[in-house]
Structures are given as C-alpha cells and as structure tokens.
Amino acid sequence: MREHGSKRVALAALGMLAGIGAATAQEVTGVWQRDTGASRVRFSKCGEALCGTISWLKEQSGPAKVGQRIFYDMKPNGANTWSGSAFNPEDGKTYAGTMTLSGGTLTTAGCVMGGLICRSVKWTRMD
Q: Who is most buried in 30, 32, 93, 122, counting CB within 10 A?
C-alpha cells in the first residue's frame, strides 16, 4: 500500500512540473518593448512554436514595418529558453535566434557562424 502511495505522489509531482514548464512558455506571450524604446514586439503562439511580430515602431520610416514577423519557429530549448530564427529588417537577413526569459526581462539574440558571433537585445514586458 505504501509503495503505491509513493508512486502516486511522485506522479503528481511530475504532473505539476510539466504544468510549470507549460506555464513558463506562456509567460513570453504578450507585448514586449525593446530596451531602446524604439519598437515593440507581440509574441504569440504559431503552431507548436512562438513567433514575434512588430506591433509598434517609434520611427516608421526605416526598413522595419509594423506587422512584420521578426521571430519565428521559437521552440523550447531548456528552462526559460527558446531557439528558432530571427529576422533583422535592417540588413534583410535571417539569423539563428534564441530567447531567454528572466523575470520581467526577455533577452533575444541573433547569431551567425554557429553561435560564434551574436547580437542580443533586451525587452521589457508591456502587458
């Protein structure tokens, strides 16, 4: 009897941990503002992944456009980390992208040469 009770407790704990992982992924959805205040991106689910679309721009005359998807196919890659692709409207290129969530700060990075050279940006939640 005691062994069955222990197994139930262990299964319940695993179920709770799985729920925590799902909740963490949801924390990224919403609107985030770039650290410079120049743009905002809305992250939302797109299929089994997360995508980020420009929702607001301070300066609208540049190459970036509202409604343009700049993060796509971002899939979980560890605790509070996602990997996928990042599009840079300034140079028109797509890079290997990562996102890391730490509290109220989201850090995104676009990398080339297998992650040898990366450029990161910090974002703050708006909603």
A: 32
Both ends of the chain: CA-CA distance in Å?
Answer: 49
CATH fold for the domain made of 2-125: Lipocalin (2.40.128)
For the chain, what is the mean pLDDT? 83
Give the residue carrying structure tokens 């990161």. Answer: 120
- 113 DSSP β-pair partners: none
Residue-level pLDDT at 24: 43
Give pLDDT, residue 8. 42
Q: Which of 123, 111, 96, 100 is nearest to 31 (CA)?
A: 123
Q: Which residues pair with 43 in a beta bridge?
A: 30, 52
What one-letter code names the amino acid at 21?
G
Instruction: Indicate the residue type of 82.
Output: W
